[in-house]
Sequence to fold (1007 residues):
Amino acid sequence: MNRGARSNQKMILISAALVLAIVFPHIAPYIALASEILIFALFAMAFDLMLGYAGMLSFGHAAFFGLGAYTAGLILKDFYPSVPLALLGGVIASSLAGFIIGFLSIRRRGIYFTMVTLAFGQMFYFIAFKWTGLTGGDDGLQRVPRPSLGPLDLKSQIVFYYFLLFSVILCAILLFRIVNSPFGKTLQAQRENRNRAMSIGYDVDKFKLRAFILSAFFSGLAGGFYALLLNFVPLNSLHWTNSGEVVVMTITGGMGTLFGPVLGAVCIILLRDIISNFTESWTFIMGLLFMAAVLGFRGGIIGILRNKLKLSI
Amino acid sequence: MSKTIQLTGMIALLLGLLVSPAFSAETLKIATLTDMSGPYAELAGWGNINAAKMAIEDFGGKVLGMDIEYVYRDHQCKADLSNQKAIELYEKEKVDVIFDCPNSASGLAVTNQAIKYKKIFFAITSGTTRYTGDLCNRYTFHWAYNDYVLATAAGIWAADNLGKKWYTITADYAWGHDLLKHFSAALQKRGGTLLGNEMVPLGASDFSPFIIKAMNAKPEVLALLNAGKDTVNSTKQAVEFGLRKQTKIVHALLFPEDIKAAGPEVFADNYVTASWDWKVDQPGSKEFVAKWVKKYGRPPNWFNAGNYSCVTQYLLAVKRAGSKDPQAVIKALEGYKFNDFFTNPGYIRAEDHKRVGKAYILRAKKPSEIKEPWDYFQIVGEVPTEQAYQDVKETGCKMGEF
Amino acid sequence: MNIQFIIMQLFNGLILGSIYVILSLGLTIIFGMLGIINFAHGAFYMFGAFVAYTIMAYLIPNFWVALIVGPIVMALFGAACEAFILRRLYNLPPLYVMLFTFGLMLVLQDFIRIVYGAAGVPFKAPASLDGAINLGFMFYPKYRIFLIIITALCSLGVWLFLSKTKLGAIIRAGTDNSVMVDALGINISRIFTFVFGIGIGLAGLAGVLAAPLQNVSHLMGVDFLVDCFVVVVVGGMGSISGSIVGGLIVGEIIAFGVMVWPPMAQTLIYIFMAAFLLIRPRGLFGREAFHE
Fold:
């Protein structure tokens, strides 16, 4: 397929995706689920920046998501009911955590890096669990308000969805620019061959740290949105199983593609909801699907679309 | 001229149709949100769903001329999923009321949505006193029990009958702390002493150090303030270390399903509070049990019975209110005194929306005493309502407006 | 806190540590030889307990039979998994294999929930191990002492097998460089099957041994899984001695954490692991090769 046809196909696909996103709340099982999908799509994209592009598997990303959620929730509830302020607080908190944890973990690579991030994630969970006065402990942070944003009445689920859609598309564009920038290319270079990147003169660790902070930034933003969606922050947002969720979504969707994790989030959350309404053995079915997925194809869902359907994404 | 009259007539009819409720085919939609695939699936799950279905059927399937529709959802004991499902039920499914919700964190999340959508939520299987305490609100009712009665009824009865020197092993999170607070207060009221307490992290698999410390203090009663897996583990290991030879054990929460899961010899001669038991002999109880056994092959547990009772009382309240409008129904529930097979006496307090009644004290039978399947408990005592439930002035509830 | 209590806790740490040791031995052998991070390891542990329960409840009500047959059944099950399914995944990036074992974990757990229910099943220690032994300064349950002895024997057995037998030598070589072993004409794929089977058999053994001590339910492996990863990392990935020492250390850390400040006990091992990794990433006995 020549370049012209390929970029035409890309435009068609992007337009189709946009149309789908706009009508999505009306075809999804319920609007709040569509909003949840958007939030995890953002979380998964942020995660893919680290996994797919920088080649770092973190199992503690729930810490950034949860930190963003709790900070935003606390600002909305106890400080000042302003959505922009809450989200800003959330990303500042998560980025700061990203800097600190990143700085300490980057020294290690591979499975050891993963385990260090897991350890940090669990420590955050433990602190939130014990600090009941601040976080509500096991009960979570209750009664988080969802104030209006200017003329937008965010209390309406559909208005909130479109607000989320707009924000997530903005973030997606930003992330797309980042991974295609020289910074992003260098990240991928060091993922492929660290020594060669270093020999060219790049300070590989600095790049990794920046990727870590950016990833934490967007994860915290997703967390802040989550607090607004639920009107409460569950303690589970900080648990390692939440980190596991986003790992699974990213791998299933297709790492290193940004759009793949979005598909992963959509498929997993939708399937889970639909299947669990049919049977309480949905865990069994999801497990089988994961196993079949790995046996059946390479490169995640994006891989299928690329190879079998010859789509150029 | 006639055309104008015709047009006016059409408009009047249309307006009349829009305004008059009698012409709309209204239904009452009821939902159960419960745990169907997580840790509470055996205790709640299908049992509670069947209870609600049976209650609707026995009511005749209709109320005030409206058909009753019923749906149910699985929240897997996850608070975030609970929140989402509550939104789905109230907004998309347009249910008028949600019942059940095991797990306190999940239930509290649902109250957030009940307030937002201005619809009723009956918390049945979860026990946190926050429903009727700092997070109380006009749209939430707490039915079957709460942590206060679990601790206080057992505490008072056991202090009077089993011994005054106590030790406690507590699950280290909000629920456990709540229970400990109320147990100690109950103990003190009856002149007992708490020799010591061990806080155990949730889900710990090894209780031996705590049991050893407890045994060293030589208490007459050991209270295990935990539930589910923790209860099974702590009791199994207490038996293993021979604690039961000198000490009686009192549980915060113990169900026939737990006993079946671990084996009756593990729990033999332990005590627990229950709001009801299938052996209870009050009007309507035996008939309900017989009906349930016929349909499901085994007796109901008191969560199931609580769900049946709650749905029935809700439908009766709708009838009394003459409308399904949540605010009218809420007013019909507040301050209502009644008796049914589950709670006799029964009273829904307006100040905090708690259903109160007496509490039973159960003893787990030894394997040799069990004569038929599910015959795990013997009723050994009762604690009257005023002693079992917390005084309304002390709950900390500031019940506001709608 | 008296000396008696401290010694008691030392023993309790050994108990917890013993379960970790046996579980981690399996995990580390599988990782060392096959490069697979087996997310389903906790689920296999749980499955082993249920196999033992089923044998005792429906076939032969004898704990010793279940103790021997259970792990053997699990080993065969593991070998079958490897031979028929996992083998196809070796050319995929490790993350995909990880996703696969994650799916397998969900399937195993939910299967048990569907068949046996969510509440769990009863499991008692054999009557011969009931009661406590008077160790002079304290009473300690017989079953727990048995557990410590079995773990020691098992570890010794695995170590002897790997260091003294020819097959053990092949496995050690394969862990180091499987391509070379293959090139030397040894059927490496059969070795892989055998090793995976052994690893899962060990997981099953841990499950049977732990069953009398705790609630036997479909979720009993979930908490242990993460802790096992901690042990394997601390001990050194692929190292047998690392699993043994690491398992015991982690067990003792939890036991002492419980003495000092119980809420913190579980988190303490994460802090310990993080600190360890930052100072000595290859673990106690691991090799530099596993660094990346």
